[in-house]
Amino acid sequence: MTEPHSASPDVVTLTQENGIALLTLNNPPVNALSTALRAGIVAALAEAAADPAIEAIVMTGAGRGFCAGADITEFGKPPREPFLPDVIAAIEAFPKPVVAAIHGPALGGGLEVALGAHARVAAPSAKMGLPEVKLGLIPGAGGTQRLPRLIGPAAAVKLIVSGEPVGGAEALKLGIVTEVAEDVVAAARALARQMIASGVAPVGLSSDAARLEAARAGRDAFEAAAAEVLKGARGAEAPAACVAAVRNSLDLDFEAGMKAERAAFLSLVAGDQSKALRHAFFAEKAAAKIDGLPADAVARPVRSVAVIGAGTMGGGIAMAFANAGYPVTLIETSAEALARGQGNIDKNYASTVARGRMSEAEKAERIARITGWLDLGAVASADLIVEAVFEDMGVKKTLMADLDRLAGPDAILATNTSYLDVNEIAAATSRPEAVVGMHFFSPANIMKLLEVVRAEKTAPDVLLAAVEVGRKLGKIPVVVGVCNGFVGNRILRAQRNDLEALLVEGASPAEVDAAWNGFGFPMGPFAMLDLAGLDISWRARKALGQTAEIADHLCEQGRFGQKTGRGFYRYEPGERKPLADSEVEDLAKAIAAREGITRRSIPAAEIVERLLYPMINEGARILEEGIAQRPGDIDVIWIFGYGFPAWRGGPMHAAGNIGLARIRDGLQARFEQSGRAEFKPAALLERLAADGGSFAG
Ligand code: 3H9
Fold first, then answer.
1. Ligand 1: centre distance to CA 405 (Å)
2. First and final CA of the chain: distance in angstroms?
3. Alpha carbon separation from 59 to 46, 96, 343, 694 (Å, rounded)
4. Which of 416, 491, 533, 620 is the most exposed place for a label (fewest CB within 10 A)?
5. By alpha-carbon position, which residue is closest to atom 43 of ligand 1?
6. Atom of ligand 1 nearest to the CA of 110
7. Cα–Cα dist 375/1, whole Å
8. pLDDT of residue 79
9. Topology of 2-260 in CATH?
10. Which atom of ligand 1 is nearest to the CA of 139?
11. Secondary element (H or E) of residue 437
């Protein structure tokens, strides 16, 4: 028999069946812990406490999951009671057993609620984690104190600092839950029944002395794990704060640990890094929205894919599709090229297996989805054809015209180009409305970013299909307009505007790279150029009639970077460690002498400004031209495609923190000094700086 209780607000419902109450969090779409939901839980607990017929509570979430955590939209506003730590304390102090029944996401505050319960059961679909670090925060409702007591401080610090969720099976292994079951509510009820039958009063994690003692015994393992996880922090504040909070769980009593956790959480939530990461979180969601489409537009269906070209890019793209379950026809012009491409795919998967990230069976399954072919006619049966051939307009146009002849009438023709004019490529076909750009980033099976290039005539159903397919591949698709280099590479070019001048004026490639690393990028611009191959940017420059004296000179000598053992740096055979090369310095010195420039030591802050401001300026031009739909899209592209430190929120968000007037003045001074038009502040930047505005506004 199920009896609804009336007193609880709608966001929390309480029903009762045979003495066990079912407390359901019901705040669509993700049961975020809004003020109303927190108050609802407190009210439901009071109601259950007052009802002598209720012997235990099972907590569950309505809809897709248990609970996605604190309501992120409430951050930045004054916190309102009841505070989450107090709500969780009330759950834990409930005198009768409380069991959390977890399906789907139980993240952040959602998992912390479950940690307040006296036991936890998960569905295989569960996705449990403390992702606060990704928002520049530490868990702020007891996660840093209860989780170490539950699973040990080493495992806890790994989970908290990575922010990555675990599934039901892994949660069982770690000891977060005691059982995994398909019907999680039934399993939780059964467990509650056992707990009632045992007659033992429930003990919360906060007061479990035996667990605390066990956690303290894991101190050495914790310190080792903490040192390891902090290696990737690169300027982010939250990881170190997470480590400190978990260490408190060993050093302080529960109350003091909670107090310190709350203080650290409140300080981080008010800081620039968390604001930037929250911006990135919402910008990523906003990037999925496409302006200017008819309301009734739907994606053209894509069930099968053909990829043309089995080089590094084509092979990676084929793997990305195979990984997502699509059958792929991989087409090459010669048997040797095809064999080489398939060999590389095999090697790539084999290394994933060797690292324990994939089983042999999965590898075989994925490889079986990719069928090699030597005849372009094989595209006839594909819904989506992605060409990934040499980046040359003539080559791409000829191929597109052939594909137009051979493809089925409803096929989508996608070009994977990183710079070229997609309108011109589309014009080589009789169906420009079916042509779209899909700019993958290398390695295409790994990198999250996908620039979807909307050409003048791209039809809405084709654009939507490219975005939807991108999402199915696990990527973050961002729609961009046509221009040379689209959003990402166009800004990358702007970042490089002043690179050679810095060398001539006295900085070494290593100093420039170190400054950029200090800003938070994993790789500096010269190391990046050497890795990508200097010939690539050389070719792009030549196509635009541009020159770069030092880089051009290096290329003329066959110094293409790592692959030739020399570029801006030199490399020992088989090594990737960049070593200073006096020839590059001599070249820079010779140019300085010729130009009458006195070389000097250039401070890191100046180096960063001279790389960053031109990027922001180019971003402003991109917005003026409507190439990006919104400033947040540019940020998403740079965070996910180019390693921009997420805790700085991307270039356009970072601009707001620096101050647009300061950026404008810096660019204006550089423009006047160099006479180079690319430094001239963009009209949008001028206008916003004059108004005291920001790109976000
Ligand atoms: C925290 O908990 C702090 C505590 O330790 C301490 C507090 C004192 N809040 O992603 P989707 C929205 S920090 C508000 O498309 P999916 C989202 O914006 C929090 N809104 O669905 C979207 O809105 P719209 C730690 C949220 O199924 C809609 O819900 N938690 C929140 O692909 C649907 O989202 C996290 O960091 C939220 N917490 O993925 C979890 N979450 O429709 C963040 C989502 O207007 N969330 N929305 O665009 C996620 O990872 C995913 O949303 C989730 C669902 C996996 C849950």
1. 46
2. 55
3. 14, 13, 51, 44
4. 533
5. 68
6. 2
7. 66
8. 87
9. 2-enoyl-CoA Hydratase; Chain A, domain 1 (3.90.226)
10. 5
11. strand 435-440
